[in-house]
Amino acid sequence: MNPLLTDLSVLRAAGTVHLPGDPWYDATRTPWNLAVNQLPAAVAVPRSIDEVARIVRAAVGLGLRIAPQSTGHGAAPLGERPLDDVLLMRLHELTGVVVDPEARTARVLGGTLWQDVVAAAAPHGLTALHGSAGDVAVAGYVLGGGLSFYGRKHGLAASHLRAVELVTADGSIVRASADEHPELFWALRGGTGGNFGVVVALEIDLLAIADVVAGMLLWDLERAPEVVRAWAEWTADLPESVTTSLRLMRFPPLPELPPFLSGRRLVVIDGAVLEDDERAAELLAPLRALAPEMDTFARIPAAELIPVHMDPPGPVPGVSDHAMIAELPDAAIEAFLAVAGPDVDVPLMFAELRHLGGALDRPHDGALGRLDGAYALYAIAVAATPEMAAAGSAATASVAAALRPWASTGTFLNFADRTVDVATAFDAEAWAKLGDVRRSFDPHRVFVAAHEIEPR
Ligand SMILES: Cc1cc2nc3c(=O)[nH]c(=O)nc-3n(C[C@H](O)[C@H](O)[C@H](O)COP(=O)(O)OP(=O)(O)OC[C@H]3O[C@@H](n4cnc5c(N)ncnc54)[C@H](O)[C@@H]3O)c2cc1C
């Protein structure tokens, strides 16, 4: 059935649905990434698991496809596709966290944000393998692998997933775990979940970490050549207890920014050290020897790790690019500085290298078994206008291109917020198995994920 010839208003009987022209259509179709203009046939905003199931059944009955989306942090690939036969399933009203302090687990509903999980776990002396931004949702992040500042010690967030409940294409609620639909559970652990159903709940392991040595070191961008070299050397030989990021950052002069950021070009190293204070100080000493202008590394409550990375506090328009880097020899550092360092005038917000390895490199039983690289590169530019988007897209692509000679063959889909060859994120065996699981659980390709496995 062609949905364009159908009266989609019948969807309203199934739940909260906004159609083009409705007062809430524009507000609810707008993702976190404000540069993305997604124009679906309808937007659903369910508040319960049963409502998700009713809407899935009604949409499939009308011949619509369904794109699950929690926040729209990873919306860019969807915005690049026509969505006129797609119902966008926004999950921001389906939220909630229940912590089991004895079992050290949390059950979170499908649209829950990391900041709410961290806040609920903290009173029990627990935390989770969250990422750098508190307003990223658990679902998209974990289903894509999940790279945390605890990652080198504890691995990918997907490897700490206990169970997933999802509404599949026939509207049934399926629970996947090591014992229930194990092949689906395997696929959901890093295999980009939006391909198999609408995830309505996840059970995750929590970590017994009440406080952590974390913070940032900051220098003017002019110091980048020596700081990047020192960080590359430092990260080459570090225990797994340390996970850090290095960014070359450019801030516009904005009154809402603190003076140490406003209008500044900086090099920033931040992250977490899971050691006692003395050992942490010993490990940080080579970076501190570079006399940073600001040094905030100290023992802080684990719940305060999120703001350390200074990700934007709310939605922004952005374009980005990404590559997995196998090694950072001096020539690679030269190439990185040539496109993002102090001598160039480029419209980048930041060019970031996250240190990988350790437990992130040790295979676990999931579709994304390990991260194939020593560093993950992520470059982003503000894209408030189409002209800024074009210039930013070129600038971020040039950072990825400059480091390509040292790239591994892999892709980390969480950092790939543009249309990419999804197969490059997996080894050949995992890719074939993901196709099997997709054919088994979504044979008619009802679901539309940001990164699709065997699209229709
Ligand atoms: C500022 C910023 C900081 C970030 N920091 C990190 C980081 O530290 N570590 C890291 O690993 N990643 C990080 N990311 C990337 C982020 O993890 C991905 O963009 C992720 O996809 C976001 O998940 P989401 O659900 O919030 O986004 P969405 O855009 O809502 O979802 C992305 C995709 O995930 C799937 N999905 C989401 N929710 C559901 C659901 N309920 N059911 C089924 N499928 C679903 C869909 O396929 C969807 O297209 C960051 C991104 C940004 C913009």
TrEMBL record:
<dbReference type="InterPro" id="IPR006093">
    <property type="entry name" value="Oxy_OxRdtase_FAD_BS"/>
</dbReference>
<feature type="domain" description="FAD-binding PCMH-type">
    <location>
        <begin position="36"/>
        <end position="209"/>
    </location>
</feature>
<dbReference type="GO" id="GO:0016491">
    <property type="term" value="F:oxidoreductase activity"/>
</dbReference>
<comment type="similarity">
    <text>Belongs to the oxygen-dependent FAD-linked oxidoreductase family.</text>
</comment>
<keyword id="KW-0274">FAD</keyword>
<dbReference type="InterPro" id="IPR050416">
    <property type="entry name" value="FAD-linked_Oxidoreductase"/>
</dbReference>
<dbReference type="InterPro" id="IPR016169">
    <property type="entry name" value="FAD-bd_PCMH_sub2"/>
</dbReference>
<dbReference type="Pfam" id="PF01565">
    <property type="entry name" value="FAD_binding_4"/>
</dbReference>
<keyword id="KW-0285">Flavoprotein</keyword>
<dbReference type="InterPro" id="IPR036318">
    <property type="entry name" value="FAD-bd_PCMH-like_sf"/>
</dbReference>
<dbReference type="GO" id="GO:0071949">
    <property type="term" value="F:FAD binding"/>
</dbReference>
<protein>
    <submittedName>
        <fullName>FAD-binding oxidoreductase</fullName>
    </submittedName>
</protein>
<keyword id="KW-0560">Oxidoreductase</keyword>
<dbReference type="InterPro" id="IPR016166">
    <property type="entry name" value="FAD-bd_PCMH"/>
</dbReference>
<dbReference type="InterPro" id="IPR016167">
    <property type="entry name" value="FAD-bd_PCMH_sub1"/>
</dbReference>
<dbReference type="InterPro" id="IPR006094">
    <property type="entry name" value="Oxid_FAD_bind_N"/>
</dbReference>
